[in-house]
Design a protein that fits this description.
Helix content is 72%, strand content 3%. It is built from 4 helices and 2 strands; from the N terminus they run H-H-H-H-E-E. A hairpin with a 2-residue loop joins strand 1 and strand 2. The radius of gyration is 17 Å and the shape is elongated. The two termini are 31 Å apart.
């Protein structure tokens, strides 16, 4: 069994948010190539949408675990608000609640990376500075 004190959840958050960002960045290019070769399909494949959910779940776990370790209340709030923004943008992509520009997904992804880096920097040697 893996001990929680050996895992840096900020690293997990940074990695998952970065992979999510790359996934979102690559989507237009992959589907542009698909459209040029085959013009029958409008939506993304199921396996590609499953990646959205996996990144969302992994990033929630990283946010939840990282916020348990920090004593900075504003960092906890910022991480959760940013994760909720990411969730809302992804849900909006599926259900089209409001009209958003395609690049809207980059904002919460980048913010999650930034806040995890900040939290990692402020929490050194297992103790967090206030």
């Amino acid at each position: 069994m893996i001990r929680n004190d050996t895992i840096d959840f900020n690293n997990i958050g940074i990695i998952s948010s970065t992979l999510c960002f790359i996934h979102c960045l690559a989507t237009p290019f992959l589907f542009l190539a698909k459209t040029c070769s085959v013009t029958c399909c409008d939506s993304s494949p199921v396996w590609w949408r499953v990646l959205d959910v996996l990144f969302l779940l992994l990033s929630f776990y990283a946010v939840y675990s990282a916020t348990k370790e920090t004593s900075k209340k504003w960092v906890k709030i910022a991480l959760y608000i940013t994760w909720v923004l990411l969730l809302l943008v992804i849900l909006n992509e599926y259900f089209h609640f409001i009209l958003l520009f395609e690049e809207a997904i980059y904002f919460p992804s980048i913010l999650l990376i930034v806040f995890h880096f900040y939290n990692k920097r402020s929490c050194t040697n297992g103790s967090c500075n206030i």
